[in-house]
Amino acid sequence: MRDFDYIRPATIPDAIAAAAEPGSAYLAGGTNLLDLMKGGITSPERIVDITRLPELNRIERLDDGGLRIGALVRNADLAHDAAFAKAYPAVAEALLSGASAQLRNAATVGGNLLQRTRCSYFHDTASACNKREPGAGCDALGGENRLHAVLGWSDACIATHPSDFCVPLVALDAVVEIEGKKGRRHVTLAEFHLLPGETPQRENALEPGDLIVAVRLPAEAASFAANARYLKVRERTSYAFAVVSAAAALVVDGGKIRAARLALGGVAAKPWRARSAEAVLLGADANAATFASAADAALADASPSGDNAFKIELARRIVVRALISALAGTPERMPALPASPFSNIPGARHDA
Ligand SMILES: Cc1cc2nc3c(=O)[nH]c(=O)nc-3n(C[C@H](O)[C@H](O)[C@H](O)COP(=O)(O)OP(=O)(O)OC[C@H]3O[C@@H](n4cnc5c(N)ncnc54)[C@H](O)[C@@H]3O)c2cc1C
Ligand code: SF4
Predict the structure, then answer these.
(1) Per the confidence metrics, is the pTM higher than 0.90?
(2) Coil, strand or helix: which one is 165?
(3) pLDDT, tens digit, for every residue of 169-192?
(4) Predicted pLDDT of residue 350
(5) For ligand 1, which residues put their CB under 6 angstroms from it?
(6) What is the pLDDT of residues 271-285, one digit of tens each?
(7) Are 74 and 106 a contacting pair, CB within 8 Å?
(8) What's the count of helices (H) and strands (E) in the chain, helices before strands?
(9) 155-191: burial string, b at 16+ Cβ within 10 Å, e else
(10) Which among 120, 122, 292, 352 has most CB atoms closer than 10 A?
């Protein structure tokens, strides 16, 4: 790890001014940033520690019925907030399916949105990687790529975004609140993460110095509370990133789907909102045939980027499974292994 300056500003404007200097990086929980620094994948000259900034660790109910979650709220604290889990069960389920209990205790809301890809070539500084070094090439193309993207990828980069949390958030129309040198602005999460195109090094809508101050959920997001699930398929039962995941949320009345939200994880460089599938679901009968058609629509544009054609069929099946689970109703208590389609201990708590 290279030497770096460390500062801990007392105010948001001071933090933004410091981080706007080239070579700076914000430090929140540090669970991703410090790993990348230790591996030499990123080498900031100045660390701007935001953990003591005021007012970023609050969960606030807004006058319009929405919710505002401060960027420094810990993933574990948010998932275990009883009122939050009741109103947004798929988000709590996604949070609990991410990482380990120790990591969730340290990881923050803002940091989770900005965690970097788990592409192994990105993490290996001896490999060619356009994201790490623009123009270098991409060793994942033609390499070990069975876990790479099947939607929205380009010849420059086929990496996926690893966050679980972001998947239900994008389905529920979450908005990222950002403060920068020009003031405060709001960007939908759907527009926040960028597809790789020719510039995979540019991963999100942030400008130098921009600080995520909060994530907002609109009032409507809570209307899905009774029928919302997050399902994650991973390669081992303990902590692991998603091979494929899906967040499904429905409003069902008289057997008809009155509102539907669907998003996928592990398939693209951003949490993938499946709007074409939502269009299939809206107004249709809530049954297996409808869900299969929705899954086909969600994956209609998918194509393998390497040895990962299996992910397309897996994603179809997870979409159907997530919709069936959502239709069955949000469980009173989270399954023992949150978000696992294989859980066989209904109602047991995951307290680890
Ligand atoms: C072993 C392991 C397993 C994991 N498994 C999962 C998993 O299954 N699912 C999952 O979703 N995640 C998983 N993670 C990732 C983990 O969730 C992230 O590392 C964590 O959410 C990042 O949050 P942080 O607060 O620690 O961010 P940091 O490491 O502090 O920061 C991450 C990035 O965000 C920037 N940043 C942080 N906060 C702000 C802000 N407010 N404004 C602007 N920039 C900011 C930092 O500069 C840095 O670039 C795993 C991590 C590890 C180490
Ligand atoms: S897939 Fe993207 S992150 Fe991975 S090596 Fe290629 S350019 Fe780098």
Answers:
(1) yes
(2) coil
(3) 999 999 999 999 999 999 999 999
(4) 41
(5) 25-33, 35, 50, 71, 98-99, 103, 106-108, 110-112, 114-115, 162-165, 211-212, 239, 241
(6) 999 999 999 999 999
(7) yes
(8) 12, 12
(9) ebbbbbbbbbbbbbbbbbbbbbbbbbeeeeeebebbe
(10) 122
